[in-house]
Amino acid sequence: MAHDWDAGRLDSDLSGAGPDTLAVRAGQQRTPEGEHGEPLFFTSSYVFRSAADAAATFAGEMPGNVYSRYTNPTVRAFEQRIAAMEGAEQAVATSSGMSAILATVMSLCSAGDHVLVSRSVFGATVSLFEKYFKRFGLEVDFVPLVDLQRWERAFKPNTKLVFVESPSNPLAELVDIEALAGICHAKGALFAVDNCFCTPALQQPLALGADIVIHSATKYIDGQGRCLGGVVAGRAELMKELVGFLRTAGPTMSPFNAWVFLKGLETLRLRMQAHCASAQVLADWLEQQSGVEKVYYAGLESHPQHELAKRQQKDFGAVLSFEIAGGKEAAWRFIDATRLISITANLGDSKTTITHPATTTHGRLSPEERANAGIRDSLIRVAVGLEEVEDLKADLARGLAAI
Ligand SMILES: *Cc1c(COP(=O)(O)O)cnc(C)c1O
């Protein structure tokens, strides 16, 4: 269906555009219909003009879509928008945050390689490395996130990949990404950062020297708790390996989810700003309360890495945790006394969530592993959403009154 417009004017010129503009417009290629919103390509396969064209496209001699496990225009638009926002040459979307990590390791590592992982990573990430990758001959060691000397000493001649989450969950610890990138490169290892908690709106690991940035799009990129997805971004030479793995193994992103995430990215910075502002108010307030023994939030001057967080991130994120007087029973009483906040382990939603890490997200760890990770029975985590901050404060005050 041809049209008479100048095709060049259908798509925006984004040369020199700033991050907010890229978040709204990057990756969109209009079809001849001239749609303003991003089109959703709900199709598993694509047709060809002739048998010869089909053969040429399959052989890679002619550009074009073949099958949505390989490419899908809606997924591609999401990938290009994320790449623009992370300052990456290329991004590759996956079916979940976990499959983003799976695809990274499966495509870049082999049996016999050694991988270093920061100790305080997401629970399923620990299981993926400990329980599954080790079965296929990968050597895995865990290193405390904040300690650069321990990192330096943990490398072996066969260390291929270093994987960290910064800031960490639930204690909001950081690693100096630029410094660790320097160590990784001196040792000849690739450096991957799970940027789920900050998103590209607050932190750009590639600009700080990381080789690979990984997201669970399920969290802030969606931002409203609807869809599962993941994405990996970095140099084209690395992403080529991921594309090969994903089109073969299959954990690719659904076009519907890609469409939801595209719309999520458009409001990401504004949402993050509001999330962070409320988190700061609540962290400041919690620190003043007599029933609260310690608050973990990098926006507090009491946080040991406050200065690093200011340097490395645009803001401090929206996940905070705190220890209350008393143990597990008191923590459960606190959580059960809230009436507004959702009791769920998810985060990155407009709805505020509260969880008891020791018996949920970190419940499968042995008491010793939990102690190592600094997860005490008196610890409560809150992922601050977008409700009125005074309502959230009142709800947390109900919790405090109950202990
Ligand atoms: C949720 C999460 C993941 C896993 O993402 P899914 O989309 O749930 O598979 C990985 N890393 C971090 C930091 C997360 O919070």
TrEMBL record:
Enzyme superclass (EC): transferase
Entry annotated with the keyword Transferase: yes
Give all N6-(pyridoxal phosphate)lysine modified positions.
Answer: K219
Region span, Disordered: 1-20
User: Which Gene3D superfamilies would you find in this protein's record?
Assistant: Aspartate Aminotransferase, domain 1 (3.90.1150.10), Type I PLP-dependent aspartate aminotransferase-like (Major domain) (3.40.640.10)
Reactions performed catalytically: O-succinyl-L-homoserine + hydrogen sulfide = L-homocysteine + succinate
Entries under InterPro entries matching the protein? Cys/Met-Metab_PyrdxlP-dep_enz, Cys_met_metab_PP, O-succ-hSer_sulfhydrylase, PyrdxlP-dep_Trfase, PyrdxlP-dep_Trfase_major, PyrdxlP-dep_Trfase_small
Keywords annotated in UniProt? Amino-acid biosynthesis, Lyase, Methionine biosynthesis, Pyridoxal phosphate, Transferase
GO process annotations (BP): 'de novo' L-methionine biosynthetic process; homocysteine biosynthetic process; transsulfuration
The metabolic or biological pathway listed in the UniProt record of this protein is:
Amino-acid biosynthesis; L-methionine biosynthesis via de novo pathway; L-homocysteine from O-succinyl-L-homoserine: step 1/1
GO MF assignments: carbon-sulfur lyase activity; pyridoxal phosphate binding; transferase activity, transferring alkyl or aryl (other than methyl) groups
HAMAP family (UniProt xref) = MetZ
Q: Which NCBIfam families match?
A: O_suc_HS_sulf (TIGR01325), PRK08133.1 (NF006003)
Protein family membership:
Belongs to the trans-sulfuration enzymes family. MetZ subfamily.
Tell me, what does this protein do in biology? Catalyzes the formation of L-homocysteine from O-succinyl-L-homoserine (OSHS) and hydrogen sulfide.
The name on file for this protein is O-succinylhomoserine sulfhydrylase
Lineage, opening ranks: Bacteria, Pseudomonadati, Pseudomonadota, Gammaproteobacteria, Pseudomonadales
